[in-house]
Amino acid sequence: MAKWRCIACGYIYDPAVGDPDGGIAAGTAFEDIPEDWVCPECGVGKEDFEKADE
Most exposed among 5, 8, 9, 53, judged by the fewest C-beta atoms under 10 Å? Predict the structure, then answer.
């Protein structure tokens, strides 16, 4: 699964890790995260993420 980068702060969402503090289980694809999820580092929404280069 692809990793996604926050364009505001550079946080990398890694599906293998998920976002346990945000209620996102490991193994959750970025596309399957709820639309109201926000970056755990800076608080921007999913629309401010881009696919990271592998």
Answer: 53
The answer to whether the pTM exceeds 0.90 is yes
Q: What is the token pair recorded at 36?
A: 């109201």
- Decide: helix, strand or coil at residue 30: helix
Contact of 49 with 15, CB cutoff 8 Å: no
**pLDDT tens profile 25-34:** 999 999 999 9
42, two tokens: 């800076």
In angstroms, the CA 7 to CA 47 distance is 9
Element holding 12 (H helix, E strand): strand 12-13
